[in-house]
Amino acid sequence: MRLVCLVSLLATAAASTIKHAKIRTRAIDDYGNIPTTSDYVPPGGFPDTTWSDPSDWVEIDVTKNSLPVDYDSIDASVAIADILDTVSTSSRRVLVFPAGTYYFNSTLKIRSSDVILRGAGLSKTTFLITANGSANAEIRFDGSWTAEGRPVDGSVSPGATSVNVSDASDIEVGQMVQLYLNAGRQAWGTFIESQLLLVKSVSGNRLTFDFPVDLTYSEKKEPYIRPIDALFNVGGLHIEGVRIERVNEPAAQDVSNVAFRMASNVFDTDNHSINSGRSHADIALVLGMVVERNYAHGFYINKGGYGYGFNVHLSTGVRVTDNKTWDLRHHILLQQGANHNVISYNAIEEPWQSYNDMAFHASYAYFNLIEGNTFYEDCADNSHDNADQGKPFITSLSGHQE
């Protein structure tokens, strides 16, 4: 449905002019009752996500550990993986990248918690993704599933903070889990009526969470819980103060400059990302992340999805704030059941070919707060399922919405 702004025209005119004017009227459609606050605000509210610093970090200068600066013959992905495998492995680690350029000729996969990648500043430290297009290289932070899902007893109502499951023997306090409907909606092979939660306590087969459940999970649709081995454990993972640029078009479409998967307590701040494949930052199955003060622009055209800025999907409690993006198809995306995310005070500038730059790209994104952004067009579509439930727009400035 297209929403059209009504402009009130004020003018002075003689009474004789006004009395001869014809006023066109039409029947007003009945759109129902005005929604109440409870229709838009989830039982647990919208989290003001901040990064929780566990402290006690060990700084590691990569140039003193087999990764010299400005050496295009050395693959930074290989060198960083070696550092993480061998240096201060029992500590929380900050990998420090002094000013200069580091060349990524293959994919970097970080599978350890408590890791920060810290540059000298986005105008000083450059991560150059120089891999051939066929390599489809990315900088990735990857957690993993620990086990298959298991049934929840009965239905789960909005506001609930605990559930009983068929077997909780392999679920621990502090672990991240996904609550989803096994017989519910799916898009791209994923369960999209879902929410990520942290386990606060375990008593037998009863799990208590640190945040309320905010959808109805009907017993008829088979609510399930699935545990995740998240890159979490209080330290989180981070990139900050880096210029990231891709120089070759990837062969595959689903290739991002940076990808965060199955992680918690994450931040991505003060970076400058240039020329992505699909996304500049792909954020999937992430619980609690701050994306702040970044620049993102430019992309390689490929089939399917491409030209995305910050793609938030299957994630809960991500705050995207004070970023500047331009020359992309979809600058910020919420899809695949993204929920309880806050998109605030971003400068979303000239889109590529007038695509919707603030996109709720279907697949049941729900309970997301959009506040204080500038952008041209918002679009909530149903190309893969309903776009959302409870999507408030507050003080955002846009050209138009669809």
Automatic annotation (TrEMBL):
One of its GO terms (molecular function) is lyase activity. It comes from the Eukaryota. Residues 1-15 form the signal peptide. The keyword Secreted does not apply. Keywords: Lyase, Signal. The keyword Disulfide bond does not apply. SUPFAM superfamilies: Pectin lyase-like. InterPro entries: Pectin_lyas_fold, Pectin_lyase_fold/virulence. This is Pectin lyase fold/virulence factor. It comes from Armillaria tabescens.
